[in-house]
Amino acid sequence: MKNSLRKRSDANRLFLYGGGNALQSFKDCISHFSKGLTRVVVLLEHDRLDNLSNIKSTWDELLGSAHYTFIRPRRGRLSESQLSAIRESDGIFMNGGDTRSIQRTYCRGRARTSIRYAFKKGARYGGSSAGALLPSAQAIVWGGRARRDGQQYSVASPLANQGYKDPFGILELGTGLGLVENCILDVHATEWGRIPRLWEALQTRKVPTGIAIDEDTWVSITNRGLIKRHGKGRVYALTLHRNAALLSTITKSNSSFLKGAVYQ
């Protein structure tokens, strides 16, 4: 595969969708992500069976079955053929689900190495919901509460993740894919009240920049860090400044937020 995508600094390399139920917005993101690609792999949470038919029909409509392959690990482990398919792909799209489960499967060992190898060769990366927050080197894995200086306090809406056993657990940070440096990503930003969570993550790991994406909204990011918002929602940029955070919204192309942050 040619390395034209990697060499062109203006090429869109990342397509991150903030989650939500607006199918047209999701299709729009996939359409832009997949344009011109011929070997796309779609990474799924292991043993995840729900809404697979909806996901497949969306990809069939946009690409046709010959252009993509679903990868669903068994018991959280990828086979040799699945790892090979990732390395040989020109597009990697990670679907949403339980962030903890997806992070354990794809952000460690040979799975992480294979994704990074393909991306460095020039493959595009796309992700939805959990798949959109894991490209950063330091990733938010779980949680809606934090502990600091003897205090315990909320950093996300108590309505978020309410279908889980511990929907409001302590903030958990872990290793991400490392496709984006110097930035932490988050999704469902406004809907799940996650701006304070992102701020807490930046403070905890001393990372200078954070990007939070609303539902039914997606961003495209080039090699040199030019970020552009698409869809009906907002995209927030948090920047550490001493002991405070500078909050901005991305309303049009802006090269300052992720400049120098995309892994090459």
**Strand count, sense and closure of the main sheet?**
7 strands, mixed
CATH architectural designation = 3-Layer(aba) Sandwich
By CATH, the superfamily comes out as Class I glutamine amidotransferase (GATase) domain
Helix/strand order, N-terminal first = HEHEHEHEHHEHEEEEEHEEEEE
Cα end-to-end separation: 16 Å
* Unreliable spans: 1-7
Which term fits the overall shape? globular
What Rg is obtained from the alpha carbons, in whole angstroms? Answer: 17 Å
| Widest sheet: strand ordering | 3-2-4-5-1-12-13
Name the CATH class.
Answer: Alpha Beta
Strand proportion, as a percent range, falls in 25-35%
CATH fold-level name = Rossmann fold
Question: How many DSSP E strands?
Answer: 15
Return the average pLDDT rounded to an integer.
86
Helix content: 25-40%
Give me the number of helical elements.
Answer: 8
| Count of all domains | 1
User: What structural class do the secondary elements suggest?
Assistant: alpha/beta
Give a structural overview.
The protein has helices at about 5, 25-35, 50-60, 80-85, 100-105, 110-120, 130-135, 195-205, and strands at about 10-15, 40-45, 70, 90-95, 125-130, 140, 145-150, 150-155, 170-175, 185, 210-215, 215-220, 225-230, 235-240, 245-250. The protein is an alpha/beta fold. It has a single domain (about 10-250), classed as Rossmann fold. Helix 4 (about 80-85) runs parallel beside helix 6 (about 110-120). The relative contact order is 0.17.
